[in-house]
Design brief:
The complex is a heterodimer of chains A (343) and B (360).
Chain A: H1 2-29, H2 34-39, H3 53-69, H4 76-88, H5 102-137, H6 142-156, H7 159-170, H8 195-233, H9 236-243, H10 248-285, H11 291-300, H12 304-332
Chain B: H1 26-41, H2 43-60, H3 62-65, E1 72-75, E2 78-80, H4 82-90, E3 112-114, H5 149-185, H6 187-202, H7 205-215, H8 220-230, H9 233-247, H10 250-257, H11 262-298, H12 310-319, H13 324-352
Antiparallel strand pairs in B: 1-2, 1-3
Helix pairs in contact in B: 1-13, 2-5, 2-13, 5-6, 5-8, 5-9, 5-11, 7-8, 9-11, 11-12, 11-13, 12-13
Classes of the chains: A mainly alpha (343), B mainly alpha (360).
Amino acid sequence: MAAYLLQRLLLMIPTFIGITLLCFLIVHLAPGDPAELMAGGGLSARGGAGISLQKRGAVDQALAEWRALYGLDKPLHVQYLVWLKNLARLDFGNSFKDNRSVWEKVRERLPVTLKLEFFSILLVYIVAIPLGIYSATHRDTLGDYATTLVAFVLFAVPVIWAATMALVFICGGDFLYLFPPGGLTSIDYARDWPLWERIKDQTWHLFLPVVLLSYAGFAGLSRYMRSSMLEVLRQDFIQVARAKGLAERVVVFKHAVRNSLIPQVTILAELLPGLIGGSVIIETVFSIPGMGQLGFDAVLARDYPVVLALLTVSALLTLIGILLSDILLAVVDPRIAFGRRIQ
Amino acid sequence: MAVVDKTPATVAAAPGALVVLGGATPEAAGQWGSVWRALQRNRLAMAGLYIVLLLFAVAAGADFLANNKPYYMVYQGRIYFPVFRSGLVRFGLGKWQPELLNMDFKTVKAERIVFPPIPHLATDIDLTAPFEAPSAAHWLGTDKLGRDVTAGLIHGSRISLSIGFVAVGIALVVGVALGALAGYFGSWIDLLISRLFEVMLTLPTLFLLITIAAMFPPSIFLTMTIIGLTSWVGMARFTRSEFLKIRGLDYVTAALALGVPTRKIMFRHILPNALAPVLVSVVLGVAGAILTESSLSFLGIGVPAETVTWGSILNEARSATFGWWLAVFPGAAIFVTVLSYYLVGEGLRDALDPRLKGTK
């Protein structure tokens, strides 16, 4: 196990370097000079054309000083190496916008997004697994057709549409007010509310974002679970279990379900990058102060350190997710020999 | 789950039945013929195909369906065909008649004038009629600048459909090339390319796209390209596993023994047989690209501000939640398009591999 883990970790190093290099190049080679953007105000128009030559010199000097402050005056490969070195100490530099430590900003937002994603993944599995089992055990019945159809259609519903429809029709616009139009808590939310009230308020706020973030997931996973169940149910050992007179309930839940759950474990890792992308949309639509919103604002403001930090942290989270699901897979399925499951 | 990468998790392994044939022989054509017949028996898939074809017809004829110029006009005794003329002008085949150059067709006193069913262009701003609910004048309402939503949907279909094709075209070329290299040569090339797969799979694609699209000047062409360059992994993995499998078959060994050059083995002998499973991910990839583009324009990046796309109309509903028509119709357009492509993709998968039928 240790050898397998080590091998897995070693293979992740080039992947991680590839990710950071790619992100770094994209962010730094994009047109537009953050220094001029940050100098902002009246000076932003090409370094302030139209002002006197002395002032012009002062502007140029200020820009140069600003670039030096953030190390933007160095050659690109030096910038990358410095950034990578700092990354090892979880130092993502300071935000261009307010000069605060990027790591501090990320740490503020991370719990919100993690909470959103944790509940989304939970919901995906809670809904998808029973639906898949039901569909497979009731194969070719009306119930199976209905769930399959609903899952298929749901999978095609664009999240931007679902979110906007929710915002327009059930979030207190001209129609119903069933859910809040945004935020994590009500405006009058206070820490001295009774615990139950606080939980209720937070759940009320989280419900829509979590459902919107996960419906495509449970639609997809339920179909996956169904086919995985059907495959297991076709196998000989199920026949044997039935032949020796086991109750159908035992056959399904003890023998079939356990085996068909195994491939679902790997889906976890595949869900993660999509959830992170989805959280950008959901957090922007519902003004939830998470990583997605932070990232979107940072992109618009060309806040390079923040953008890079978010890309890196998301990729790192996904890598950890892949590693976890690999280990989990090996733990739940003793037939899988360590080391054979790479690729 | 995934917002961008909506390739269903159920994407199946390669169809074994197709693999045995070598090269583009008449038998291969027969195989595709039977795939087509199987597809035709699948009513849902055919419905999806017809909707996709209809959408293409709408996109191709957008200028004739929604245009602020009349088809036909009799003005001061002369006959004009302004819609057709504008088509000629666009392709540099003709010039405007000088008297039409600055004409406002809506108010001109013509003897006879026939407009298209929707007498607006997607970009026609009418500040006297912002946020109008659906009515006889504006079938699907107007947005905050008084632009007609129907016209926006019709002309927006061009962007959505072409994005799907260009992006997936790029992804196909990159994916098949890398997958073929990795699968055919194996060893360190495979290891290297597989790392690249892992990099692309691990990156939060949508966030990366947002970053690139927001930092470069908005352009539809750039959006298409970057969507293509970030969505090839699925196709590459399928191509790789197909190449791995086919490479070991006897006919490839025979070709090797005969001294057929590597390039020819890869492209003439293996590639045609490896394309079948890739085809399914191409169709699903088109749907994915359309979703991604609409998400980007929904967030207000990637396309120039004056361009009307399905996503950009939907975006307006966010700040004008009373305007239900701005939410319902463009979203439905994206949904129907994506669903149709999914139906075709699913049908194609079943048709390519009948063994899987009913299990997926």
